[in-house]
Design a protein that fits this description.
Number of strands: 4
Radius of gyration: 20 Å
Number of helices: 13
Order of helices and strands: HHHHEHEHHHHHHHEEH
Structural class: alpha+beta
Shape: globular
Helix content: 40-55%
CATH class: Alpha Beta
Strand content: 5-15%
Oligomer: single chain
Largest sheet: 4 strands, mixed
Length: 306
């Protein structure tokens, strides 16, 4: 197992180097897109009349509009979003997830359970949760929605020390290091505590928001931090994560310097605080809050309860 946490390292979720007095909670997506866009080109697909479906037999397997986006397993990747925002109601949802496929029409009417995953890249326990939560959502049929927040703002709102690990005794710090190793072994994932932890994450979070909270970008930035030991806000790291996911890195790196991006992340963090979130990872299911990767069995039970 490649998990490796030095006993001398203090592996607590740290918000980064910059407290945010709320820095950064977000606009709730528009619940209902206009119906003409919600059901694009379906008459051609099922009527037998000549049209896009019959002109190109694979047309139905690629997303013709904001309602459809099917996973790689079907045979076609969703079109890279480039500089375009996610369609209304689908921000933070992986293409191919039932919530992306059926969109707000399903979510808005309670047709699918929703699992909100609140995170910041600076927390190793949130990283561990991020490696398991897609499978949990798939098992339960839930729509997984990624919700970035700035943990420093959450800590500030609750009066939590910004460097919480500094308050630990040597014995508890050593136990936490071993605990992380055990969880990584249990999940079968690599985890290496960076010598420079905590890295600054605010730019990485703003970029995550600016690209429409693309789960592929989230995964890449978590890997950079907790597997490769690289700061997620480093320009080279952001460029690779964004570019590999098909986004316009130049546009997004410029956008995160603008007031709008800062305000967006601040609003998202304020939303997390209003929900009672005090740390990462946090899950919200049916209005109930669950905290920690070690509470995911409760999350699964809540999603499968009648």
């Amino acid at each position: 197992m490649s998990a490796s946490i030095g006993v001398g390292t203090l592996p607590w979720c740290s918000p980064g180097l910059e407290p945010c007095s709320g820095d950064e909670a977000g606009r709730l997506p528009d619940a209902f897109p206009r119906l003409p866009n919600a059901i694009p080109r379906l008459p051609h697909a099922f009527s037998g009349r000549p049209g896009p479906f019959f002109d190109r037999p694979t047309a139905f397997l690629e997303p013709p509009g904001p309602l459809f986006g099917l996973p790689d397993a079907i045979g076609r990747r969703p079109r890279p979003s480039g500089s375009r925002p996610s369609p209304p109601g689908r921000e933070g949802i992986a293409p191919g997830d039932p919530g992306w496929l059926f969109g707000p029409l399903a979510l808005g009417f309670g047709g699918l359970p929703t699992l909100d995953f609140w995170f910041d890249y600076s927390c190793p326990y949130a990283y561990l949760a991020s490696t398991q939560v897609p499978a949990l959502a798939a098992r339960t049929g839930a729509t997984l929605v990624y919700r970035p927040m700035l943990l420093g703002g959450v800590f500030a709102a609750h009066g939590t020390p910004q460097k919480l690990f500094a308050t630990l005794s040597a014995a508890k710090a050593a136990h936490n290091a071993r605990d992380l190793d055990r969880w990584a072994d249990l999940f079968g994932v690599p985890l290496v505590m960076p010598a420079a932890h905590p890295f600054r994450t605010v730019e990485a979070l703003r970029a995550t928001v600016a690209c429409g909270v693309d789960p592929r970008v989230v995964t890449a930035l978590y890997r950079a931090y907790w597997v490769e030991g690289r700061g997620p806000s480093e320009e080279s790291v952001l460029r690779k994560a964004l570019g590999d996911a098909g986004h316009d890195a130049d546009r997004i790196l410029h956008a995160i310097t603008e007031p709008a991006a800062k305000d967006d992340l601040r609003r998202r963090t304020d939303e997390a605080i209003a929900l009672g979130i005090f740390g990462a990872p946090a899950f919200v299911v049916k209005g109930q809050l669950y905290w920690g990767q070690d509470r995911m069995h409760f999350v699964e039970r809540a999603l499968t309860a009648a």
